[in-house]
Design brief:
By secondary structure, the chain is mostly helical. The chain is built from 6 helices and no strands.
Length: 127
C-alpha cells in the first residue's frame, strides 16, 4: 500500500507542477508571450520556489503553520483569487487554480489567515 500511495503522490506532485506550468504558460500566452519566452522566466522562478519545500515539510509534520510566517495565507489568497480573475478575463479556463482558491478560502474561513500558506494542507485533509 505504501509504494502505491507514494507512486500516486509523486504523480500528483508532477501533475500539479505540469498543470501549473501549462496554466501559467496559457495566461502569459494570452498577451502574446511565447512558451519559449515564458520558459526563461518560469524555470528559474520554479527552481527558486522549490527551496520553500523543506520549510513546508517541517511545518506540515509539526502541524505548526503559524511560526515565523514569511508569506501569510491572507495575502496569498488574494494572489490566487487575482489569478483566477485574470485567467477569466484573458479567456483562460481557471479550472486548474479554482481548487486552490476554494481550499484557501476554506482555511481563511477557519481563521487561519495569518498562517503560512502551507496550512492549506489542513483544508485538504478529510480524516
Amino acid at each position: 500500500m505504501l509504494a502505491a500511495v507514494n507512486d500516486l503522490a509523486l504523480l500528483s506532485a508532477m501533475y500539479g507542477l505540469f498543470g501549473g506550468y501549462l496554466h501559467a504558460t496559457a495566461l502569459a500566452g494570452s498577451v502574446g508571450v511565447t512558451a519559449k519566452q515564458f520558459l526563461s522566466l518560469v524555470e528559474p522562478w520554479l527552481t527558486a520556489m522549490m527551496t520553500a519545500l523543506p520549510d513546508y515539510a517541517e511545518r506540515i509534520d509539526s502541524g505548526d503553520h503559524a511560526r515565523n510566517v514569511m508569506s501569510n495565507l491572507a495575502m496569498q489568497s488574494v494572489a490566487i483569487t487575482n489569478i483566477v480573475a485574470a485567467s477569466r478575463s484573458q479567456g483562460i479556463d481557471p479550472a486548474f487554480m479554482e481548487p486552490m482558491e476554494r481550499l484557501a478560502q476554506k482555511r481563511l474561513a477557519g481563521g487561519f489567515g495569518t498562517d503560512e500558506v502551507s496550512g492549506i494542507i489542513e483544508a485538504m485533509r478529510t480524516k
